[in-house]
Inverse folding.
């Protein structure tokens, strides 16, 4: 217990400096600074492993995630935009999406006139190796 108290006292002495980097994030500015610091740390350990820096990365990442969960809303799902993005990423053209149905059906889906059904969502999920959630819109 005495050793733990000594470590705590050492930490308290350096806390005014450390807390400027490692503390709960409450503002957008602090959030962006934390992300910049995280990038610097990640670049550093990618060149040479460092357990201390890796622990700091973990802690800073947790603080950033906590701020994001509380202050930054998740983007709304857009199944059509996701499909178009994946098509571009995989070099797929409209006529390559035979699993969705006829070319008329594919055209209606890509133009937004028709929504994806469960069978099509499963097929796309399997084809692109992504969660079916990628193709589900907001309920």
């Amino acid at each position: 217990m005495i050793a733990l108290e000594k470590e705590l006292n050492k930490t308290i002495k350096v806390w005014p400096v450390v807390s400027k980097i490692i503390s709960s994030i409450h503002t957008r500015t602090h959030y962006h600074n934390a992300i910049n610091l995280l990038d610097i740390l990640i670049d550093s350990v990618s060149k040479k492993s460092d357990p201390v820096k890796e622990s700091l990365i973990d802690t800073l990442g947790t603080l950033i995630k906590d701020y994001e969960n509380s202050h930054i809303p998740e983007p709304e799902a857009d199944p059509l935009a996701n499909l178009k993005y994946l098509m571009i990423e995989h070099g797929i053209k409209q006529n390559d999406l035979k699993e969705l149905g006829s070319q008329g059906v594919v055209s209606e889906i890509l133009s937004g006139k028709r929504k994806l059904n469960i069978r099509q969502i499963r097929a796309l999920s399997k084809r692109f190796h992504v969660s079916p959630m990628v193709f589900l819109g907001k309920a």
Observations:
- The radius of gyration is 23 Å.
- The CA atoms of residues 30 and 36 lie 10 Å apart.
